[in-house]
Amino acid sequence: MGLLGTGTTYLYLNDESGQLSVERVTLPIKNLHPALEGLTIVQLSDIHVGPYTKADFVQKAVTLANSLNPDVTVLTGDYVWHDAESMFELSPVIAQLNARYGVYTILGNHDIWTDVKVIMAGMKEAKLPLLVNEGVPVNVGKGTLWLAGLDDGWSGRPDLAAALAGVPSDATVALLLHEPDLADEYSLDGRISLQLAGHSHGGQIRFPRVGALILPHLGRKYDFGLYRVNDMWLYTNRGIGVTTEPVRFNCPPEVTEITLVSGG
Q1: What's the CATH code, domain 3-262?
Q2: N or C: which end of the chain has fewer CB within 10 A?
Q3: Residues in the chain, pLDDT under 70
Q4: Given this model, what pLDDT does residue 120 score?
Q5: Nearest Cα to 174, choosing from 111, 225, 239, 106?
Q6: Is the pTM of this model over 0.85?
Q7: 1: exposed, middle or buried (C-beta count within 10 Å: 0-12, 13-18, 19+)?
Q8: What angle do CA 206, 208, 214 make, to 5 degrees?
Q9: Beta strands 192-197 and 72-76: pairing type?
């Protein structure tokens, strides 16, 4: 067996694609309303159901997310890979997501590349709101978390002005946008406290001191984890599913729990 074959065998023998991880992040937010102190947001991303990522594995992620008893749950795009109809296999699973103040979703590039109308129909079947250049207030006592959901930044038509229309001046704004590298642009707005993204899968295969060998367009600069971009926090979720190569190494699938605290 050659070196390439040996390396490939090693990766598959040490595959982490079935090992769900919970990543817990505490974010200090400037001018956070006292009512939002300790508010938790659970994030899932890049499910890519079928053919490699099965619905029963997504069910484990949903059960794990619900066990965290989140205040808000968000899904940040890419529900399918090649087949838009897979969305109807996913819909009854993600319909089980539960959060105190609601579950919200946005689109990713694969959702548009396949058939966005099918993805929208699947979300309607799951009874989950899909935010496309739309903002919604999450009112907690007298405090407001404003979720600004943008259309996909690669293949859609994101409109930040529309998503922030009517936002209260004292609200904490969380931007939901699939591609992390667009943080360089949207962080300049000044009203956004944090962006939640996915898209990169963390590269799926990461090597010590080298990082990921392959990363997608708009997911190369901020490929996983927490960043500070200008005055905005950015968190890039590694995703649930896999594409192309059905393997993960040093990059397990994740459910993220984000806790907001005053500071920043």
Answers
A1: 3.60.21.10
A2: N
A3: 1-10, 12
A4: 98
A5: 106
A6: yes
A7: exposed
A8: 30
A9: unpaired
